[in-house]
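Continuing the batch. This is chain 6 of the set; chains 1 through 5 are on the previous pages. Same settings as before, nothing changed between runs. Recording input and output for traceability.
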Amino acid sequence: MKYIALIPMVTLVSILFTAAYRMMNFNAFKEILIAPASDSLVFLTTFGLTVFVDLVYAIGVGMILASLLFMKRMSNIANIDTTKDDVYEGIDDDEIEDKKKLKGVVVYEINGPFFFGAVSAFTEHIEKIKTCKVIILRMRKVPAIDTTGYHTLYKIYKKCVSSNISFILCQVQKQPLKVLKNYGFIDILGRANIALNIDTAFRKAEEYITYLKEYNKMFNIKM
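Output for chain 6:
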C-alpha cells in the first residue's frame, strides 16, 4: 500500500476517469427520453447521487425509490382481476379443441404487470420452448409494463426472428401499448403481428403456418 502513495495523483485521476467512462452506458441516457417518466426519474436521481455524493448512498436511495415506484404501480392495479382463466377464453367452445390441436402454435398469457419479477418467469418459460412456429402472447391482463419488460419482449422477438418464429401480441392494453410505441417496438414487430383478440391471433398464426408449408413445399424444405 505504501507504494500507491508514490503514484502521482494525476495518474490516479486519469485511471479512475477511464474506468468510469467505460462503465457508463450512453445508450441508457438515450432511452431516458422515451422511457416512462418515473423510470427516468429514478435513473437520473441515482446517477446524480453517484456522481456528486456517494455510491453507497446512491444505491440506497435508488433502491428505496424503485421500491416506492413499484408499490405505487401495484396499488394502481389492485382492483384488477387476476383470476387464472383458460388462455383460450373468448373462442367458441366448438373451436377450442381445434385450436389446441394446431401444431406449431404456443399460447402464453401473462397475468398482472410485466415487471422484473414476471419478466424472469416468462423468460424461463420461453427458453423451454424448443420447437414451434408461432408464439402468441396474450396480454389482456397486463395493465402495466416497465423498461425491463420491454427489453425482454425485444430479446424474445430477436430470438424468434433468428429462428423463423412468428411472434404475435394479443390484446395489448393502453399503458403497455404506449410504452411499446415509444420504444418503436410496434413498428419493429409490425402492426400485422398485433391482434385485437385471440381469434384474430389464431387466424394470423394459421396464415403464417400455411405460408411456411407452401414455402417449404416449393423449395423442398422439411419442417
